[in-house]
Amino acid sequence: MIHYHRFRDQQSYILKLLNKPIRQITTLILLISCKLLSKLFRKVPLALALLLLLPYSLNLQALSSKNGRGGNRSDSIIVPPSPFINFVRPNLVWGTRENAGPVDIWNPKKGFFVKSINPSSYELNFPTTGANGLYFDLDIEGVDARQLTWEPVTHEGITATVQWEIGEWDGWFDGPEDVLRVTITGPRLDDSEVDENGNYLDIGQKPTYPGLIYKPNLPQTFELVGKDSEGNGVVTYGFVLQKWFLVRDIWDIESAPTHAEWCDGLGYRLPKVKDLTNAVCRGYNSSQCRGAGAIGATPSSTGNHYQRQIGAGLFSEWGKMYYYIGAEFGGDDFPTTDSANGVPFFTVASFDGQIMKGYESTPLHPVIYDGLCVTP
Hints:
- By secondary structure, this protein is an alpha+beta fold.
- It contains four helices and 16 strands.
- A hairpin with a 5-residue loop joins strand 10 and strand 11 (233-241).
């Protein structure tokens, strides 16, 4: 033990000898720095001098931290990250496996990636299509979304409203969630309207005329701005609606106008296949859509089903429409104007975007399809 202590004493003595000149050199450097800084302060404003000293201060903090002399104290400057929206989440049902979009576009558990924060290219973002009652959720990081306020944005009779919703439980959730939800409302078929005699106007069953349901002028850019308690905009999301859809359900096909006639009367039109899906006629169930008439949107899918993509049709963007509560998408198959030899028209299934043969209704075999109208 005696030898051990002697060794420790010798070691401490050597360290003191080494540290002495180091401290002397450090003191000399500080004295010179102080003199130089004293001259500097006479020639430059105080604010500029502080800026010049900032890197030196940060270096000292870094050295202090490395030497273990900082203790639990931290004087470093921490700049919080700017809030940003990472994903926008529509219906996730039928958004996996062959229906999943490219990995840089679509996350099966999160939805669409935000593709642009630049107003000049908002058209790259979801959605490009819309209908009354559709909605999606914003996944925000870097800020407590509950503390933000959002003003509704309205263009051409279409309104995007952002609200914090508590305990939502949609078909694609594992359980109840609190979400920041964007709901789109606009022109729609409204059979609750009454005439001057108090009778309900069953618009879906009657001939139409221009102006009965408003026809928006598109495209229109929507920019949603989340503001803090002081009214400062802290996060923004923009998209460009390029097409607007109306949903029409009928119960008496004998007396009602056809979907094409009904849409035309409003100044809308019956959709084409590519307005709804990016499916292509190959692979599973491709016999349903053989023929040059069935042409899906681009970017194309890998088979007769949609692939979740932005700007590739209503169903490719939004998924299975039936799950949007309040949007009134009742049926699954919707007729289009596309046709081929031996096929009077093609239909598109909303649940997976599949293109199928349409069948004319006859008295012996009545076939009723719900309809869609689109503009432009």
